[in-house]
Amino acid sequence: MGLLIRKQNVFLHRSVGLMTLILSAIVIVAVVTYFSFFYIQRKNNSEIEEKKEQINNFVNSTIHEEFNSTEKIKLAGDSLAQFEETKQNYLYMVNHKLPQLSEHLTELSDANTHYRFFEVRRELKLIEMKLQNATKVEKDTKNTLELLKKDNLEHQKKTKELEQKYQKIRKTLLAKNFSFGPSIDKLEENLSEIEKTFDNYSEMAKVGDYVKSAEILKTLKKETVLLETAIKVVPPLYRNVKNIFPEQVTEIKDGYEKLVMDNFGFKTNFEKKITDIQTLIASDIVDLSELNFDEAKTTDEKIDQKINEAYDELELEIKSKKSVQSRLVKFEKFIKHARKNQKELLAELNRLNQNYTFNHNEMESAQEINESLEIIEKEFVEYKEKSENRLPIVYSDIDIKQQQQVKELGTIEEKQAKIADGIQGLWEDEQKAHKAVKLFDLDIHTLKRNLEKLNLPGLSKEYLDYFYAVNSEIDDLADKLAQTKIDMDEITKLLIDTQSDLDVLSEKTNDILDSASLTERLLQYANRYRLRYPEIADAATEADSLFNREYNYSASLEKIATAVDNVEAGAYKKIEDDYYASKIQTPVK
Hints:
Number of helices: 15
Protein name: Septation ring formation regulator EzrA
Order of helices and strands: HHHHHHHHHHHHHHH
Helix content: over 70%
Radius of gyration: 67 Å
Transmembrane segments: 21-40
GO biological process, one term: division septum assembly
Strand content: under 5%
Largest sheet: none
Distance between the termini: 189 Å
Subcellular location: Cell membrane
Function: Negative regulator of FtsZ ring formation; modulates the frequency and position of FtsZ ring formation. Inhibits FtsZ ring formation at polar sites. Interacts either with FtsZ or with one of its binding partners to promote depolymerization.
């Protein structure tokens, strides 16, 4: 029983503890909830008051004063309509939309007191969006009012500026109408149109219709700029066509007529050139009268270019005449000197052509030179005849042609000198050739005599054929030189070939002379060994056969020299040295 009572006491004690914990938790949650509701409620009240303050700011905005100040500006037409629309939109917002929002905020304040927080938060977001839109409307309204005021000031400023420009243009046209020539009527007509446009603009600006007046202003500014441009452009262009160009044309025409009287000719149709310039001047005047400035400028440039070309052509002919006359005397002497050289050259060619053959087109070249010289002489005579008979002369053409002919005459004299130098050496070359042939003949006879002095048993066919061939070459040379008309180019080639062949013949002859003489000495020297050395006897017999029967003196020498050297080393070298030493002391003639 006591145990049961103790268990019941424990259970009761535990139950009381659990209840205490639950009650504590409930109290904590209640406290947190209370403070949360209190915080949200205060926050909502703060936002409600803040938005009411924003609404009061809209109502008390200075924009109302700006409406009053803008109304004092004279507005009309589109400008007035824009102002009225802007004002109505803003006042509707302030007088209708904003009071509704203010009343709604009062209702939300009451709902917030009754803890309808979700409803309050939702509605505050919607009111925030509407207030942002109100802020935009206020900003746009201020911008529109500022723009209208700015337009008013800008139009006043531009009106004053345009009026000043207009008066300045008008004053310029009145004071300097003589400077505008044919353009004055059109300029005054345009000024009158600008005046009408300006009056229209002023009327629009005065009544405050700045929207429409802005469009008129664009047109007015464009017309004024064009007129200002015309005032700057026309006077210099008109001065050119009125004074400068006509004076230059008169000067060119007088200069041309004077030059024609002084025997000048021209490459172009100069009279047509003057007429073309006068036509362009007339066309330029028409363009100015129509205010066609681009065309007038282009025509002005063409006139200036053609006038400069005309001046240049006149100046060119004058300078060319001075140039022609300054070289006239020297040029004539140059021609005469070239002609004198040509006569002498042709005479010399004809004389030498009787005795010599020309191989370098000397006669043809001289004839070409003569033809070129005749053309120069002919053109010079034609120029002199024109000058003497006072016929028109295009001096620029004559000047260029004579400059070319001076160079050509220099080339002609160089060619004449080259031909003359070439033919002058023909006679000297002939004399040298005669002397060379005599020497050739003397040389071959000397070779022949030297061979005869040795009383050789004979000569090989090969040597004799070569000897007679060289001798024939010398005879042919002598025959060609003996002809009435000789070809020195051919003779010179033959001289070179004959000299070469004669040199070879001389070597062959000297080889025979030396080989034969040395063979005889060695055969005599070999006699001392004949009895003791049979090979010497055999070599001597064979060498004798080569010497006396085959006339092969070099082979004979080699045969006996080899045999002797085999018996007595160096014997041949000693005999050879003695032979050439004695030959130097007593050369063969």
